[in-house]
Each structure stands twice: as structure tokens, then as C-alpha cells.
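Cont'd.
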Amino acid sequence: MISIFPGLLNGAVITLQLLVTSMFFGLIIGLIFAILRINKNPIINKFAYGYSYFFRGTPLLVQLYLIYYGLANIEFLRNSFFWVIIKEPYWCAIIAFSLNTGAYTSEILRSAFQTIKKGYIEAAQSLGVTKKITFYRIQLPIAIKQSLPAYGNEIILILKGTSLASVITIMDLMGEARKVNVLTFKPFEAFITAGIIYLFITFIIHNIIKYLEKKYRFQT
Amino acid sequence: MELLSFGDTGWGDELFFATLMTIAVSIAAMAIGFIFALIFTPLKLSKNKTLNVIGNCYTTIIRGVPELLVIYLLFFGGTGAAMYVASIFGYDGYIEINAFITGALAIGIISGAYSTEVFRGAILSIDKGQFEASKVLGIKKYIQFYKIILPQMLRLSIPNLSNVWQITLKDTSLISVTGLVEIMRQSYIAAGSTRDPLFFYSVAAVLYLMLTFLSMKLINKLEIKYSKGY
């Protein structure tokens, strides 16, 4: 029982790496697409909507397989510089998770942008604040504060999503648990221990978000 | 397009039946989830501390643990547990539990946790006066639940249940790891034997998009139908 612990902890480190990296890229993608979504140009708007519709409407596993198995099938990608990235399952997983969470994050941020009271923007305009500064100093901070609770849920969803990396040969927490199961034929020990570690990580994320929510509470 | 033709040469009919399988597993899982939700919602709302903790443990653990883990636990653990139970009754052979049943049960447990939260929220948003009024009128507790609370709860939870349905539908793709031939597994097989993963996984993505789109349309209709008069 104790002997399986170091392996699982090594896996947990990989899981956390996957989580943090895809959260980082996902936030950037999400922010870009949220801004595109509130753009008034219908083509840009539709493009951003299509992106989020595709990634929210299909299972993460399909996206992962499309990137891991599918992209390797395209001849010119294989001959190009991108092959260095795409041939690694680790980076494929990060691309898939980032694109997936980017879609969800863009929806969260978009709804936060749209619920900002018009009065704030009008007040800024009447004070002669430029559009750029209004966006960076007023809209963005309010949107981020308002979307914290929803984003906390999204982080937990990504954490659960990273377990799919084990399907494409990455030895994350789930992969290590599968290895233990195969080697020892003790499914309950392997998966329940992994489950406890996952729950522990979820618990920590939940509390960090709760703390941030309290600290940056936005009064309307 | 040849690859998608029906019959022996194409994968059209296989993918069609795989889609039906995905729908069947999703519906079965959703139904199992409802049963779990109807058991655990009263526990979560109960004033008894112990029952409350049991209800909260269920939703917290299931929603905090990867879906894949629940599936593996039931798939690998379920066989062992079934064989252990059978050995008590004197049967020592190998028992293999049907992939459909394990898959539907695993996804059902997960969707049950989400449904529980939805039902809980719906019941909490029903006006307190209704409970009091039915008490004053001397309506029995279970009649109050079936005739007053349940219909309102279902109506209020349709929008959120549609989210749960979407999650359930997408989660069924994970059952492919246990070998049940649904959309994902069938595309995996097709991609393997034709060496064209890009095409078949794109087809799988389109099939899932179609399913989510159609079910959205259907649920919207239901929502309009049941919100008449409000």
C-alpha cells in the first residue's frame, strides 16, 4: 500500500504541470476570444462563437484524439517546424486542454463583460478617459473579479480533464494509478488512492478561489 | 466520402449504430442519475446532520474526482467485487460484467451528482409559502411532495438539467476506454484500420455536435411547453 505512493505522487506532479500550463494558455486564448465575441463585426463574432461552440459541444477525448492522432496525419505539418511539438504526447495534451478550457473561459469572461453596468463605461467616457484605458482599467478588472467563482469551477473541470492525458501514454496521476492496477491487480487501492489525491488538489483549488473571492469581492 | 458509405466497404452503418449506442448509454446513464438524484436530494436537504453529510459526501467526491477514475474503478473493481460476492455463494468462475451496464452505471453515478445539485437548487427556489400552505391544509407529507413539490421542481430544473444532459452525453465518450462500441470506440477502430484518424475523429466530432445541437433544440421545446402559464 505504501509502496505505491511515490509513483502516484510523481504522477500528481505531472498532473499539476498539465493543469498550470493549460490554465495559462487557456486564459490567454479565453481572453482573446472573449474580446472577439463582444466585437460588433459579425464575421469576427461568428468565428469566435463557432470556436467556442465546437470545443464546448464535443467531448474532450475527441479533441485530444484529433490533435494527437489526427494532426500527425497531415503531411505538411509533419515536415514543418510544428512536428517537434506535435510528436510529443505531452504537448498535444496541453494544446487540447488549452483550446478546450479557452473556449469555456471565453464564455465565462464574455458573460462577465456583458453584465458590466453601462454606467461605468459612460462615466468613463464623459470623464474623457480613452477607450483603451477604459478597457484595461475598468472593464477588465471588473470582468475578472466577477468571473472568479465560475472560473474556479472551470479550474476543477480542467483538473478532471487532465486525467485524459493518461489515454495518450502520459504518466500523470491517472496513468500511474492505471500502472499500479495493472502491476498489482488491486484496482481499489490504486484508484481510490488516486481519487483521494485528486480530491485533495480539488480541495486546495476550491479554498484558494474562495480566498481570492473574499479578497477581491466586487461591490455593485 | 466513400469511407462513410453503408455496407461492407464503408463505415457509415457502423458509425450509425455507434451513434445509437451513444444515445442509448446517455439515456440509460441519465435515468440512473435521476434515481441517484432522487435518493440523495432529500438527504442533502434533510435536517439530520448524518444524512446531510452522506448527501454532501456523494456530490463533493463525485464532482471532485475525474470521470475516468469512476469508470476505471467500476470497470476493474466491479468485476473483482462481483466475483467476490459470487464466491461467497459458491461460484468460482470468471464473471465479466457487461460494458454497457458498467458504463451506464459509472456515468449515471456522475450525472446523478450533478442532477442532485440541480434538484436541490430547484427545491430551494420554491416559495416557502407553498410548503406552509400545504401544511395548513393538512396535506400529507408524501402527497405534498408528489403533487406540489415534484412538478414545480421538474419545471424549474429543466434548463439546468439540459446542461447535465450535455455533460452526460460528452462523458459517454470516456466509456470507449472499456471497449463499449460507441461513437468514440468505433472511430478509433475505423481510424486504426483505414489509417485515417484525422477524417474519422472529425466525423466523431461532427456526430457529437449534431447530438448536442439536436438535443438542445428538443430541450428548448420542452422548456417552452412546460413554462406555459408562468
